[in-house]
């Protein structure tokens, strides 16, 4: 862990940015399959959407091993361009993809100025179990000037739920997945929060 450094996505070169997007598409492939099952195509289509100042990465020897994004009531971690999706998937499908992703990840959050939302937490396959997510979580909580940190985890991701409990998060509510839960791969979104200290 001593050779690991934490950097904003904006401070990485093009290769590092691509690695971060690949980690995201690999981790969330099941949820993204409505766009395409081709991970290379997904990476190409989503590369533009990652806001560099909202994503933090764990880097070791030039390789990105984990990502951790945050959003607030003023800034989201993603900014989608409908034209990019239309170019990649065609006018109709690209427009639908934009609508779904913007609705899920691009709309302003109904938070107060002291709340922060963590999202898109993912670790490269070869680095899982090394504490990368914990390291990034602790770094962001120390670095960011917010009083309350909120995140969501799906009910099928029990290992992440247990990790967040260990990190001091407590469950605050559950929301049923109404649209295509089998396709999405989960039944409920679980929201958790913790304070600064």
UniProtKB/TrEMBL annotation:
Name the keywords, alphabetized.
Acyltransferase, Transferase
Q: Which GO terms describe its molecular function?
A: acyltransferase activity, transferring groups other than amino-acyl groups
The protein's matches in Pfam families, at most eight in alphabetical order, are given as: Acetyltransf_1
- The UniProt record lists the N-acetyltransferase domain at 7-193
Q: Which InterPro entries match?
A: Acyl_CoA_acyltransferase, GNAT_dom, YpeA/RimI_acetyltransf
Q: What is this protein called?
A: GNAT family N-acetyltransferase
Q: Which organism is the protein's source?
A: Paenibacillus faecis
Question: Which lineage ranks, top first, belong to the organism behind this chain?
Answer: Bacteria, Bacillati, Bacillota, Bacilli, Bacillales
């Amino acid at each position: 862990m001593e050779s690991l450094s934490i950097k904003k996505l904006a401070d990485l070169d093009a290769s590092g940015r691509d690695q971060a997007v690949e980690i995201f598409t690999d981790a969330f492939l099941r949820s993204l399959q409505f766009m395409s099952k081709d991970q290379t195509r997904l990476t190409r289509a989503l590369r533009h959407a990652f806001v560099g100042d909202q994503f933090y990465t764990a880097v070791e020897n030039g390789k990105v091993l984990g990502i951790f994004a945050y959003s607030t009531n003023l800034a989201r971690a993603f900014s989608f361009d409908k034209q990019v999706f239309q170019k990649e998937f065609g006018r109709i499908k690209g427009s639908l993809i934009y609508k779904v992703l913007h609705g899920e990840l691009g709309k302003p959050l109904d938070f107060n100025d002291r709340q922060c939302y963590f999202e898109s937490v993912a670790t490269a396959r070869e680095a899982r179990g090394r504490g990368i997510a914990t390291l990034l979580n602790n770094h962001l909580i120390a670095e960011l000037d917010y009083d309350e940190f909120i995140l969501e985890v799906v009910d099928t991701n029990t290992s992440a739920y247990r990790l967040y409990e260990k990190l001091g998060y407590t469950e605050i509510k559950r929301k049923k997945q109404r649209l295509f839960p089998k396709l999405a791969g989960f039944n409920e979104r679980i929201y958790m929060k913790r304070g600064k200290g």
